[in-house]
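Notes, p. 3: input format for complexes.
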Amino acid sequence: MIRATITGIAAELPDDILTNDELSNMVDTSDEWIMTRIGIKERRILKESGKGSSHLGAKAVKKLLEKTATDPAEIDLLICATVTPDHQFPATANIICHKAGINNAFSYDLNAGCSGFLYALATAQQFVENGKSKKVVVVGAEKMSSIVDYQDRATCPIFGDAAGAVLLEPSEADTGIIDSILQSDGAGQPHLHQKAGGSVSPASHRTVDAGEHFIYQEGQCVFKWAVSKMADVSGKIMKRNTLAHEDIAWLVPHQANLRIIEAVARRMNLDKNKVMINIHKYGNTTAATLPLCLWEWENRLMKGDNIILTTFGAGFTWGAMYLKWGYDGNYRDY
Ligand code: UT7
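Output follows (334 residues plus oxa(dethia)-CoA):
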């Protein structure tokens, strides 16, 4: 049986760091509040003007190609998960391909809020498993700072900018993506969205004056849904693959709030040292959180490790994926 397996991973982070102390000079907040309620110490911000998500995405993809010694011409598909595309059109994926020298591929964007990377991975898996594509890049790329209101203390501490990319290839070994559960419920729209800039409310002086191009979030409502849905699908995927908690090597949860991550791990009966957590350094980078975790933990991953990825985001969208890691983390000499 052919499975789609991750064979390499790379990431790109902007150099500029925005600390909680700096944020405390911008809005009425404190390092203590942010650390206690969210668990974020600092986040990266892409400050260079005229650069968008494709800048970060293309850098991550170039590193990925270099690291895996892949000729850009061999890539036959690239999917970019993002809620902060460079433009409404064309797709940021097209721009990333152009910047990374990928010119034999088809490419498109996928928006599933913070679940975008998981949705894109599951989509790419289909092309690999049915034999249509041999080398697929899935990239999560976000310049969240472009839609954050730095006068709104309820949202500005949360988000950061980053990109992460993986290479997906066919494998006949017993590794790769085994199962996934993806779900969405548009009833979540009022609780987490961007009010203007789409076809319902195109950009105008009024929408800009009213701050309607920024993220709008009803935090408590989203929090409750996130804990319950991520724990629910992660439990379901473990059950239907007869996985007990001791069989799981790593849980890779979306990094939205440390309290959410801890609550999900508790409900899954998983020890905290099996949970990838880097929210304190990067914040919530939306579609980039999962690859950013895998990238940071890559050297500790071993072939055959059972990994559960889980996400929750705008839509609402949520999901879980079970994969068996495909290589020993340090098999390449870099
Ligand atoms: O990635 C997509 C999915 N998104 C999520 O999963 C996010 C889910 N939600 C959350 O992570 C949390 O709800 C937040 C971090 C957004 C907010 O934390 P909370 O513990 O739910 O706070 P809250 O909104 O209930 O606010 C509690 C208090 C309020 O003051 P009062 O009304 O009790 O006087 C807020 O005004 O904290 C106040 N507050 C702040 N205080 C200091 C809100 N933001 C801040 C702040 N600094 N930055």
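The first helix runs from residue 20 to 24.
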